[in-house]
Automatic annotation (TrEMBL):
Transmembrane segments: none annotated. Residues 132-328 form the D-glutamate N-acetyltransferase-like C-terminal domain. Residues 44-125 form the D-glutamate N-acetyltransferase-like N-terminal domain. This is EBNA-1 nuclear protein. It comes from the Bacteria.
């Protein structure tokens, strides 16, 4: 699978909405050692607090790829960013892009990149030749993060688990399925850009056969209960052939994201449905635990809610931001799968 060269210069453009910079922020949180600095086009725009560098200085300090680290409505590339992209290419830097609009669809950038022997990485469209999924049993161990809804912390949970499992001596690798995750990992497949028939095959490709004691932690997407994204979630579940599922949830969320008419499932409904779907490709799949976003309540309420969930299901429940995820990682190790 194609690897995006690190370290990165994070391009923040001139966005004013902090949420628009979530891709750059995710890279900075999880791979700080791979961030040389940031570049902005407006002094009052969103900042990550990294050192401000121009392209020439970043290149001199070892940056290999400039990452367009922001998102906007519709995923269009703003025309006034093109000059910065050209400058990076002329400096000998690769450029990585998580927007829907591809750099490789702009002929002048393709020609310039070829002239300067650098690469343009369109992360949403960066994938190998894919086959349909087969469900054929493969070696290695796999965890899939699933959710009651979208935007409930599946990527954060997956990356936190990778770190915690490695800390206790386990072989573990994060497998990215979204554009931010791909840029954090440097490789992966943005599942939302894969033709539906090939989603499960893409996940099989992303997490191939491995050593019996090696864990792939596959970043989940969407929810089986979200009418917009359930198809993507199902393809991920079947392709992952997971041994363990980690259920992600936001405490107190009243309806599915962006769909006020759509009810939220109970945790039991969601666990049962996901385990039933996952059993198609791994009949022995189990629930590993819960990862909750409890930011809407105080610490005492959060601890009480997590303790109740743990008692009900008999597995660890945590908020990885507030309380860490080491207990869940240790319980996975102790299962001895």
């Amino acid at each position: 699978m194609q690897q995006i060269p690190m370290p990165y210069l994070l391009f923040l453009g001139d966005v004013m909405d902090p949420l628009a910079a979530k891709t750059a922020r995710g890279i900075h949180v999880w791979r700080p050692e791979s961030c040389v600095g940031q570049i902005r086009l407006a002094t009052d725009s969103v900042s990550l607090g990294l050192e401000e560098l121009d392209i020439a200085t970043a290149k001199a300090r070892g940056a290999k790829t400039m990452v367009l680290g922001t998102a906007n409505a519709g995923g269009k590339l703003p025309g006034h960013w093109i000059d910065s992209i050209k400058t990076a290419i002329r400096a000998g830097m690769n450029v990585a892009n998580g927007l829907h609009q591809g750099l490789n669809d702009i002929p002048e950038l393709v020609e310039l990149a070829a002239e300067h022997n650098v690469q343009l990485f369109d992360v949403r469209h960066m994938r190998p030749e894919l086959d349909v999924g087969s469900g054929k049993k493969r070696s290695g161990k796999r965890i899939l993060t699933v959710g009651t809804d979208c935007s409930v912390g599946k990527m954060y949970t997956s990356l936190a688990l990778e770190s915690a499992m490695r800390e206790i001596g386990m072989k573990a690798d994060f497998r990215a399925t979204g554009q931010t995750g791909v840029l954090v990992a440097g490789a992966g497949i943005a599942i939302d850009a894969v033709i539906a028939d090939f989603i499960s095959g893409a996940v099989e490709s992303l997490s191939p056969a491995n050593d019996d004691d090696h864990w792939d932690i596959i970043e989940g997407q969407g929810s089986l209960y979200h009418p917009s994204f359930a198809g993507v979630s199902m393809g991920l579940i079947h392709g992952a052939q997971a041994h363990l599922l980690v259920m992600c949830h936001e405490l107190g969320r009243k309806h599915m994201r962006h769909l006020p008419h759509q009810f939220m499932p109970t945790l039991k409904q969601c666990v049962d449905t996901n385990l039933a779907a996952a059993s198609l490709t791994n009949p022995d799949v189990q629930l590993a635990g819960f990862s909750l976003n409890t930011s809407g309540v105080d610490e005492a309420e959060a601890k009480a809610a997590l303790a109740e969930i743990s008692r009900e299901f008999g597995v660890p429940a945590t908020d990885p931001v507030r309380f860490g995820i080491s207990e869940l990682a240790q319980s996975i190790k102790d299962r001895g799968l």
